[in-house]
């Protein structure tokens, strides 16, 4: 059965999947600012919309838009913000 | 609140979104064969995995893999099948 995850009071929802590419989720974020933690390396690819991202050690926001990917290290926290709903694909490696 | 839709007894789940790109869903299909109906034109893009698709009037299956898009007309039924879990982005226009 496909598992749906909810975070931040339902403002971020994702569906888990696993196939030959690995273990991943697809999800949607409501507009807002969020801080996530990682337990693996994560490859986050924007599927729709624009996401601003501040990775550990960074002091400025970087925009990522549809089709772009950023990589987050294992066991860190990182911040994102969206001014509209954003869809993403997250691969855990 | 982000809306989660379930189809085929939970074997297909999606999350709806709307932003400057339009109205869309991201979703995951369990392996299996499904027939969907459309009420708008749909641009279906594979986010992860491989999907075989048979559009109206076609008699053979066509493979679509990660990053590839197929377009489905309004008010038709079409068939898909997946041998592994597949993630997709569907834009309604």
Concise overview:
The structure is a homodimer of 93-residue chains. Chain A is mostly beta strands. The first copy, chain A, is 0% helix and 63% strand.
In words, what does this structure look like?
The structure is a homodimer of 93-residue chains. Chain A is mainly beta. Chain A has a single domain, classed as Sandwich (Jelly Rolls). The first copy, chain A, has no helices and ten strands. Chain A has strands at residues 4-7, 12-19, 22-29, 32-37, 42-48, 50-54, 62-65, 69-72, 77-82, 86-92. In chain A, the strands form two sheets. A six-stranded antiparallel beta sheet of chain A has the order 1-2-3-10-5-8, with no helix packed on it. The first copy, chain A, is globular and about 40 Å long. The relative contact order of chain A is 0.31. The interface between A and B is medium-sized, with 30 and 30 residues.
Order of helices and strands of chain A: EEEEEEEEEE
What oligomeric assembly is this protein in?
homodimer
> Looking at CATH, which topology of chain A would you report?
Jelly Rolls
Q: What is the CATH class designation of chain A? A: Mainly Beta
What is the count of distinct domains of chain A? 1
Radius of gyration of chain A: 12 Å
Q: Average the pLDDT over all residues of chain A and give the rounded result.
A: 98
Largest sheet of chain A: 6 strands, antiparallel
Share of helix of chain A, binned = under 10%
Shape of chain A: globular
Question: Could you give the count of β-strands of chain A?
Answer: 10
N- to C-terminal separation of chain A? Answer: 22 Å
Low-confidence stretches of chain A: none
Indicate the structural class of chain A.
mainly beta
């Amino acid at each position: 059965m496909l598992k749906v995850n909810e975070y931040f009071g339902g403002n971020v929802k994702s569906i888990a999947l696993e196939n030959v590419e690995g273990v991943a989720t697809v999800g949607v974020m409501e507009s807002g600012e969020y801080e996530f933690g990682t337990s693996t390396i994560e490859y986050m690819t924007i599927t729709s919309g624009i996401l601003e991202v501040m990775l550990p050690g960074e002091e400025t926001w970087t925009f990522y838009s549809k089709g772009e990917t950023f990589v987050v290290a294992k066991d860190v926290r990182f911040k994102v913000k969206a001014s509209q709903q954003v869809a993403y694909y997250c691969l855990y490696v």
